[in-house]
Amino acid sequence: MRIERIARDKVRIFISYEDLERRGIDRDEIWHNGKKVQELFWDMMETAYEEVGFEVAGPISIEAFTMPQEGVVVIVTRVPSLPARKDEEDESEETMDFELPDPLDSNFVFKIRDFEDVVLIAHALVEYAIVTRLFMYNEAYYLTVDENSMSDDEYDSIWAILQEYGEFSGLTPTWLEEYAKTILARDAIQTIADRFSLR
């Protein structure tokens, strides 16, 4: 298990498949809220407090996604109990995630700062039949990608392309649907690649 504090109210936890096996948890079981998974979560929170001073207090948002070779990445965010006031909307995105994500939601989100990079990503990923949507918030773009629409063999390549031009975001698709502007509600990658050519 490896823990990184990536913001005042957010930590990223890497759990290898070997760690899961030692705890008697198989890859599919991680998505179910069984006793072993609950014990693992509280062990993670205890370790996060001991190693980086991250303490669970109040509501939290939990997001998890798998990487075929490495293991599972879990992002835990302390969130306010009420949405930000209008005069607080310019705060960083780390304080914007108000809802506990659906644990069955297979979508993850990447933040892309420039539209040119969105176009580059689109052309790099257009060969993959992945399900994507595009949103805009605070002059940045947010691409949601459905993990279930890619194969294990494709995962690493797609992830590498997204990381090259963007950064993983702690915002959830549910939050984006409510607070961000929807640019493309479906087929975002295919649509952008069709409409915008590379310079």
How many distinct beta strands? 9
- Stretches with pLDDT under 50, minimum 5 residues: 82-104
Q: Within the largest sheet, what's the order of strands?
A: 8-5-7-6-9
How far is the first residue's CA from the last residue's CA?
43 Å
SS-based class: alpha+beta
What is the oligomeric state here?
Answer: single chain
SSE string:
EEHHEEEHEEHEHEH
Pfam families: MecA
Organism: Alicyclobacillus ferrooxydans
Protein name: NDP-hexose 2,3-dehydratase
Family: Belongs to the MecA family.
Top keywords for this entry?
199 residues, alpha+beta, Alpha-Beta Plaits, 2 domains, five-stranded antiparallel beta sheet, four-stranded antiparallel beta sheet, 9 strands, 32% helix, MecA_C_sf
Short description:
By secondary structure, the protein is of the alpha+beta class.
SSE topology sketch:
Elements (H helix, E strand, L loop, with lengths): L1 E6 L2 E7 H6 L12 H18 L7 E8 L3 E8 L28 E6 L2 H11 L6 E6 L2 E7 L5 H14 L1 E3 L3 H7 L1 E4 L3 H8 L4
Antiparallel strand pairs: 1-2, 2-4, 3-4, 5-7, 5-8, 6-7, 6-9
Helix pairs in contact: 3-4, 3-6
